[in-house]
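Protein modeling request. Please complete all fields; requests missing the sequence field cannot be processed.
Requester role: graduate student
Desired output: 3D structure, token encoding
Chains: 1
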Amino acid sequence: MALFIASVKLLPMRTAVSIRYIAPIFATFFAVLWLKEKMKPRQWLFFLIAFIGVLILKGIDRGSDFLGLIYAIGSSIFAGLATLYFWIPPKGIDWLIFASLGVFGYAAQLYMTKAFQAAETNEVAPLKYAEVIFTMLIGLVWFNEIYTLYSLLGIFLIVIDSVYI
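Delivered output (165 residues):
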């Protein structure tokens, strides 16, 4: 994170973020190198195509600061390593959870976009904080998370503030 923040100081945000998107490529490279995972050539091709798409969408400025580029690439390398370190292959019910994340995430984004089209931003945006409540409930039910009084107070203040606004 520190390298990414340093890169943002030296590069335009779109350039730093674009370079940050190569982290999954590094994660895959390290998985092949150290975990001996197998990659098909077409998977590498699609990584390249996706990254080119990011570059086209976000862009890299020709006059970019070299040190900023190094920081951004370093940030991507460390993010790739962190992903590899914490990765656990999904098993059994994990696939259902991943699928539900995709389905519900898609639905949430679709209907949030429709809400922004149908009403004023200042009326819809605070409803985004309902995500905090649902995330907390999912953490409680699925992951047996325990919340301290301070975390509950913080969540309450965020939600109340957003409703008031």
